[in-house]
Automatic annotation (TrEMBL):
Native organism: Leucocoprinus leucothites
Principal subcellular localisation of the protein: nucleus
Protein name: Ribosomal RNA-processing protein 8
Pfam families xrefs: Methyltransf_8 (PF05148)
Keyword Nucleus: yes
Keywords: Methyltransferase, Nucleus, rRNA processing, S-adenosyl-L-methionine, Transferase
Single GO biological process annotation from the record: ribosomal large subunit biogenesis
Function: S-adenosyl-L-methionine-dependent methyltransferase that specifically methylates the N(1) position of adenine in helix 25.1 in 25S rRNA. Required both for ribosomal 40S and 60S subunits biogenesis. Required for efficient pre-rRNA cleavage at site A2.
Family affiliation: Belongs to the methyltransferase superfamily. RRP8 family.
Region (Disordered): 1-137
SUPFAM superfamilies the UniProt entry points to: S-adenosyl-L-methionine-dependent methyltransferases (SSF53335)
Annotated GO CC locations: nucleolus
Amino acid sequence: MSMFEVPGWSVGADPVKENGATSSKKRKRSATNDHHALEVNFDKIVEKLKSTVGGDGKKRDQKKNSPGRKKREKQRSNERPKSGSGDTTSLNISRPKPLKSRISVDVDSSRPAKKAKTRESISPSTIASTLTLAPSTSAGPKLTALQQGMKQSLDGARFRMINETLYKSESTEAHRLMQEDPKVFEEYHVGFRHQVQSWPTNPVEHYIMDLSSRPPKTVIVDLGCGDAALAKVLAPRGLNVLSYDLVPDGEYVIEADVFERIPLPGSEGSGKEKTSGSAQVADVVVCALSLMGTNWPRCLREAWRILKPRGELKIAEVSSRFTDVDEFQNLVGSIGFRFKSKDESNTHFTLLEFEKAARKPKSDTEWEKLISRGKILKPCEYKRR
């Protein structure tokens, strides 16, 4: 009887006898067990194939049931958020980066249009909306027709009183008045806008249309600007408009007594030779109905100081103020300007244009004589409304 059996092999019960040396003969397989061993091995192969191939004939992952795979699957299930929790902050998910915007090569629709070399003309409605009298925001009691008439008469009298003060005193006195009561400045300009509404045109409209075609970055200085209508229209179009008056508005208007000193660089020069000064920055100076005080020639002296050589001076004044237009032109020429043109076609105001010219420096005495000739312009008297 065999001591133990191994499929395909058999070992006798008695030990092998050795004759003093190890036998080199190989063990022989039992011929009787060969068929049984083949059946056993075949059954194992079939079971192995069943575990790796499904019933549909598709090959399954052989490593699916491996211990390492089961451990990894368990770890992933622990990291995966539970259904309904909505907590994805702990997951380190690699998300795709946003694509950079690509420039389309569609010539017909996507290519940006080239900027026009010339600016569009300003529409009359744009100018009108800037110059229109803003409605009062204060909610007061409703007035009867009689009360409204009395109020307008009082407002008109108040405006004429302020107007007379501004025209018949020096600019320093007007500046002091505005500083003590800034409401006076507002009342004057409200009354002024009421007056010019009856005019065929406003000189500011003319200068807006005239200067709108200037090259970008042109420096325009508006002296006695009022509510800075010039800057409000021209500045958005790329022109540099500097607006000065006695009371600032916190936006466009810079406070300055332009008859005494304009806060801009520029010199009058020195010596005895003709000069155009130096360090100027202004291309155009506009005085639209702003030569009001008795010392108004000093404003033109300041305009000469800040203007570049051959810079332009544009003056608009109520026609009734001139005692002699030719004498006015001579006075402006003595300050250092060359006369260019005059337009008297309007029924209410006169337009004059000058160009800065080189001149010899003047002494204080000479300047006092020129300023004393300021009476050539009369105070402006507005009719009752």
